Amino acid sequence: MDTSNMTQIFSEFLGTMILILLGDGVCAGVNLKKSKAAASGWIVITFGWAMAVTIAVYVAGYMGPAHLNPAVTIAMAMTGSFEWSLVVPFIVAQVLGAIVGAVLVWLAYLPHWQVTEDQGAILGTFATGPAIRNYPANMVTEVIGTFVLILGLLSFSQHNFTDGLNPLVVGALILSIGLSLGGPTGYAINPARDFGPRLAHQLLPISTKGDSDWSYSWVPIVGPVIGAVVASGVYMMMV
């Protein structure tokens, strides 16, 4: 593998780490007791995630394509704008970056875990979960959210943005999805974003954490992949 590919793979690791550090970081700020941001609500979380994506894309974007999401990587390969040979290395880098980002959130909020008794709030800092547990409905929500994400990203490629503006537009897309479609499942729309931090939750020594809810974990993996495939197909029919 040449140096250029290694740089791109590293950029996926680094960008996804920043994405989760800032994204799960805002969840920690809102969810954990005695945080200065405690109970500040869904608007703060959605804006925090939108800015997390924006900053992460800026960090990774000068070294590689800044997918930061296996669903995006798969979609770009399906549409012919990305090499299939790099799909697995990118996904591995994204998951590893997500795990490290989640560990950094744990360290940043180290004193707050012990004073937070709500196991759901702790898990919600790391991974997504349904407001109403209904696997078919939860799956549909993740498919729709990811469909909008991928179709939006692919459509952006048909426009000419001022240099440096694209990450802000992507952040606006994430904000829109979070505000409009995030309520039912917490809008994972990214398998690495959910799986990596959920695994960190499982492994980290948090005495009050409870179960990692692996019975739900397949939804934010399968749903986004389906959404990415469908959006890619629609885009290719249009273009």
TrEMBL record:
Gene Ontology annotations for the cellular component aspect, listed alphabetically: plasma membrane
Ranges annotated as spanning the membrane: 38-63, 84-109, 135-156, 168-189, 218-238
GO terms for MF: glycerol channel activity
Location within or outside the cell: Membrane
Superkingdom of origin: Bacteria
Family note: Belongs to the MIP/aquaporin (TC 1.A.8) family.
Annotated protein name in UniProt: Aquaporin
Natural source organism: Enterococcus ureasiticus
Lineage of source species: Bacteria, Bacillati, Bacillota, Bacilli, Lactobacillales
